[in-house]
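Let us practice reading a record.
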Amino acid sequence: MDSTPPPSSASPFDMVSSALGQYMPDHGPAAAAGSAGPKGDDAARRDVSDDPPPADQEQILGAVDLDRDLRITRWNLDAPVFAGVEAAAGSPFVGLLPPSDVPTVTRRLRQVLETGEPHVARVQRLRRGDGSELVVSMSILAAAAPKEGLTVSLIAMARRLHLYAAETAIGTSLDIGETAQSLAESLLAWGDVTAVDLDFAVWTGEAVTEQPQGRLRLRRAALVPDRAWPDGYVTPGDDLPGDASRLLSQAIRRDDAAQAIVIPDREAIERVLGSPRLVRALTPGDQAAAVVCIPLVLDGKPPVVLGVAEVWRRADRPFADSELFDLQELVARTSHHVDLARQHQREHTQVLALQRRLLPRSGGDTIQTASVYQPATPDSAGVGGDWVNSFPLPDGRTALVVGDVVGHGLGAAATMGQLSMEARALLSAGLAPDEVLEHLDETVSLLDDVESGLAAGYSALGSTCCIAVYDPVSHHVEVASAGHLPPILVPPDGPAGPVGIRPHPGLGAEFALREPYDVHAFCAPPGSLLALYTDGLVEDPALSIDEGIDRLTDAVSSVHPWDALEQAAQRVVSAVAPTRRRDDVTLLIARMIGYRKEDTTTWRLAARGDAAARARALVSQLLEQWGTGEHTQDSVLLVVDELVANAVRFAGGPITVRLIRTGHGLLCEVGDTGNGRPRLGPGGLLDDAGRGLHVVHGLTTRWGVRWTDTGKVVWASFER
């Protein structure tokens, strides 16, 4: 018959003691608080096995009872492994912890106290009275009714158990710093101070394919425990002195395989390092007298050394051979996690470099722009396909583009870069926003075509994009969207709100769902603000999408006309972005400036034989008023004559001539009702066809064509 008391009559302290009694000593007094006396002590031990543990059985279990104020009421820490862990009746439990762990553990204790849900198997350090630390597995349980408070079980981490737990914990992050920190914390079970130093190439994500020639350049990645260190000691983020890197490199590199080395005492440490400066840089304190250095190695021929881990001890605790074996095994098992973090860092750097390259540089003379990009998480898994761009078009207009490519990582970044560059090229070639989206739609479909071999396991179907083109002369904006949220317009005098764009499926939709893209045109007078963004900025689980857009509208409306846009954009994101982001946040704000009325003039001419002469006279008079140089005047008049004459000859209909004085030059535009594309052919001296375009090409800095609803516009730019 089972003599174990039922759960209702036994506290968690009793149950833990009963279940693991063979690991707990049954001798020595157990202290009690308040009215607890010998009877209470006996009750606390009544379920401990009376059979003594085998001689070779390591006693690893301890237990502590806490009241609701998290103060110790009872404890059993008599196992030899807990020697030096000083518990006292009425003292706070957190007094047994390193100061840096107190906030986290206190939060866990109170959480179990409030909810009753246990918190189990936390790897935790305990302080000994001599300043050293003990690594345990700590579980927090609620006391069984009618008792109140908590029971904390402490299992000293046996070496093999610790190896398993450490290997599992170290692989949970792809961040280099967090991976190194996890390794250092795991190694602390074998020493008093541990450090991880990594080759600089690991930090930068560079390819590590073979042993480097000469010494490694080492940088400290992790150091535990967290305490005040002596002046001159190398802490995380610092590079090791050159001499120290050279010594460690020579020590851990071998022709066949990297080996761990042990420096057994302080005298040997000072002799090897050779100078007081190096001793201060590498020795964590006066009590540290022995160190083992274990290389982080990737298997190969030759093996590749990623860095070195250091475990320091006091003189009275020499390293045993079995401990060295365990240390080398742990580091060997986890070195590949460091290399995975290095590869992830390399991908992260590449994606961010692409993101930065796509960010707008400047707005120009007719528009001011500012952008903000914030990944959902700091690692490359959170660097996704959000992209934003603004750039001047050759004809004097400005394009604003924002997109959201499905997914994260290099696949999304590659698609993002391709779509961004394609959109810029097509807009610069004169295509309208809706036509550009049609091409992007086809590109996404082609990228997802498995037969083409371009998908590579990644699909961009459902990506979104919004394109706005601003004309600084007419102050009009044309917007087209593929599944993207509408821009926010804030006019200088009028109600702010989202632009009324007709909804459209995202890029790459099924052919049956595709519809012509709608172009929405509206006026944006000087001083207007236009905000383009991605859904990560306004999507909050606590709000509807409409409420998120309303909050963004209010935030953008609060931007003062004299505010610097860079700071204003940051404030808008801080005010609107969800606290717990699940997606990247992207915002582009543009302030419309446009050209002054005195810097632009437009004429409408009938398509008659005297149209070219009429245009020359009007343009000549204006250039005289602007004080344009004689050489530039001659070039502009010749080009105007050729373009107007070609419009009369090949297009017909009313002809529009517009001249714009830009910051550094002149821009001439001739519009007609034709839809043919003027092309610069290879015509010879006696070939009359196309000779006018050769004149235009030779006299301008750049020229091109864009299409309108009623025809086309041929533009040409000149230096003043």
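A brief commentary: The chain has a mean pLDDT of 78.
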